[in-house]
Amino acid sequence: MGSSLAQKNILLGISGGIAAYKAAYLTRIFKVEGADVWVCMTEAGTKFITPLTMETLSEREVLLRTFPENRTVGTRHITVAEWADAVVIAPATADILARMAGGIADDLLTTLLISTVAPVFVAPAMNTRMYNHPATRENMAILRDRGVRFIDPGVGDLACNTIGVGRMAEPRQIASVLQQYFSTAGQLKSRKIIVTAGPTQEPIDPVRYLGNRSSGKMGYRLAQAAADRGAAVVLISGPSAEPEPAGVEIVRVKTAAEMKAAVDEQFDGADAVVMAAAVADYRPTKPADRKIKKKTTTLQIDLEPTDDILRGLGSRKKSQVLVGFALETEKVVEQAQRKLKEKNLDLIVANDPGLPGAGFGSETNIATIIDREGQTEETGKLSKRALAEMIIDRIVALLPPRQGSSGA
Ligand SMILES: Cc1cc2nc3c(=O)[nH]c(=O)nc-3n(C[C@H](O)[C@H](O)[C@H](O)COP(=O)(O)O)c2cc1C
Question: Which of 29, 212, 278, 363 has the fewest CB atoms inside 10 Å of its own CB, making it the most exposed?
Answer without folding.
Answer: 363
